[in-house]
Structure of Major facilitator superfamily (MFS) profile domain-containing protein:
Amino acid sequence: MTDHNEPENPPAEPTEPSRRMSRRQALTLISMASVNFSSMICYSILGPFFPAEAVKKGASQTVIGLIFGCYAVCNLIGSLVLGRYIVQIGAKFMLIAGLFVSSGCTIMFGLLDRVPSGPAFIALCFIVRSIDAVGFAGAMTSSFAMTAKIFPDNVATVLGSLEIFTGLGLILGPPVGGWFYQSFGYEVPFMLLGCLLLVMVPFNIYVLPSIDPSKDSFFHLLGHVKVVLICYAIFTLSAGLGFLDATLSLFAINKFNLSPGYVGLIMLGLSLPYCLASPLMGYITDKYASSRMVFMVTGAVITASGFCLLGPAPFLNISGPLWLLVVMLGLIGFSLGMTAIPTFPEIITYAYDQGFEEGLSTLGMVSGLFGAFWSLGMFYGPTVGGLITQHLSFEWAATVQGVWVLTLTFTHFYVLRNREDRQTDENTPLLNE
């Protein structure tokens, strides 16, 4: 019998929300980490040795820049299209299919040394890289969207933590690729890492949870000035990375007489600080969301300074020893983390504030927009940077890139000033009462 003097359902005492991750979140984190690591290590192996190998096959510096750039153009198109239709395609299927396509293309790229020099080699480089880019766009677009869907309250922290694995891929790719190239030739780095990416397919089929779908348009989102300026930041940052991918190895080999293996080690100066900065910036900008724009402006100033001293700029009339190159790469890597990590959660927050639907449709759209502008920069950087390097010098090309990044400080100062003005307007009635 029950005592009628006691309530049948006593009110539960308020409890603190659990800080432990659910099984679904843990599996997603493992899956996204594996995708980031395997994708980026396959992407970054080209830097130390491919430009020199392509020159032997009859490609000019401009063509090499276009080979890197075509990857970005196809990634741009793929990000927009796949981000728009992520709900219809399915986030999990898109990610797994993207990994499968990218792994096959990585293996095929390793066989291109058997192709005759000249137009045949160059044409196949464009074709394989373009298909690879679409696969990569599918994997990364769905990865961003699923992460934001499953970790809605800690987007920057989780993305910053995942960038550790992105950084590890960027760190290990150049030295591992350079060492395997020196020891075993052109084919082995691509074969091994393509197989690593292929292993990620069944792994993610088993590990990755399914996401239930939750409609606005890209043009609606781009109709807001703040979103356009953040996308401009994404563009300039990726342009800098794309420029370094296509030109840094040849510059270091020619100026300092380094082998591809040592060039791979130099590239650690860029990726290691980025790897360390990303989780820290993610945690801080999640905890203090109002600091995001401040970090973006500060990071832009540091990045611009790093590019101007990378060569260094010819008008500075100072020598450019190897240690200065490595230090500036480290500075650029750390400041990229300051500027890039806050961009994705800032767009999501702003989209929700403007009334966009809180679901996978909006997250996929934001992911596609991020990927598209990142890819646009990855096309501009190698292509225009390669042209300037070929007709002027690496030093001038790096300086131009620094000036591009410096313009971020003015555009984002505009956003900060407008936000402060709005806060003042909102507080004024309260002060007058």
Remarks:
- DSSP finds 17 helices and no strands in the chain.
- Residues 1-18, 420-433 have pLDDT under 50 and may be disordered.
- The first helix runs from residue 23 to 44.
- The two ends are 59 Å apart (CA to CA).
